[in-house]
Backbone:
């Protein structure tokens, strides 16, 4: 399976936005924080906006916010927003494949892979990823009094 740069950048942008829900973030700030090429990120954020995963505000106080609560945005939503179908084989979705003879069982394997990946991505929210990251982060050092 191939995870596109667009899907990776989109997920990383949404995680940045979820960290700062009280204020909008600019594409410049997200790109700088995550090491994402700015021009590529602008295109990705446009896809996310069209899918309703982010919302935007113009002007000097403008930028981007999450379009829905972080616990309602899954990695499956993100992948589909920027890439469309989750899994394709030469442009066909696994449900449309039908092979003759000895290869007849192969499309079923592809459908199974797609279902498993869909379940994993669909069960992983932006909020859950932030919570997991917070649990893994070492506590801040408390100075001696």
Residues:
């Amino acid at each position: 399976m191939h995870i596109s740069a667009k899907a990776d950048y989109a997920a990383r942008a949404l995680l940045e936005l979820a960290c700062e829900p009280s204020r909008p973030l600019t594409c410049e700030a997200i790109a700088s924080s995550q090491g994402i090429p700015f021009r590529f990120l602008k295109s990705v954020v446009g896809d996310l906006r069209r899918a309703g995963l982010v919302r935007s505000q113009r002007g000097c106080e403008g930028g981007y916010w999450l379009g829905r609560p972080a616990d309602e945005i899954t990695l499956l939503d993100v992948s589909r927003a920027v890439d469309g179908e989750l899994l394709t084989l030469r442009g066909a979705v696994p449900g449309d494949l039908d092979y003759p003879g000895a290869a007849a069982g192969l499309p079923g394997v592809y459908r199974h892979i797609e279902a498993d990946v869909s379940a994993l991505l669909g069960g992983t929210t932006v909020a859950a990823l932030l919570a997991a990251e917070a649990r893994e982060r070492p506590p801040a050092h408390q100075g001696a009094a």
